[in-house]
# Entry
Amino acid sequence: MRILDLTDLPHRPIEAHGSRGFSVGAFGLSADAHLVSVALAPGGVIGRHPAVGRQLLVVLVGEAEVAGAEGVVHRLGAGQAAVWEPGELHETRSAGGVSALIVEGDLDIGAPGEQVDPGDT
# Structure
């Protein structure tokens, strides 16, 4: 077993799409998806951009405001997630700062309580 401390991952700042206070640290990759640790500083923004693949953003610490193609803002706290479809325009903001995990790629994401993998019995 290995223990990963996502707070110690090297992060690189991202400024594309008008982003600010945003950094990422990639730590996992498969043929179909990649795993990224995300940090947004207080007042940080991940600027509006299209999702490359289906994208899952899971808030680990703090709060985020997210919006999809329709522009409706939703607040997420620790343990909550947003899912964007491939090509969907979306953005994320945080007034107080947030630490999150993003999984992006060829993903099957079920509704809460839905069993996606029939092997999970």
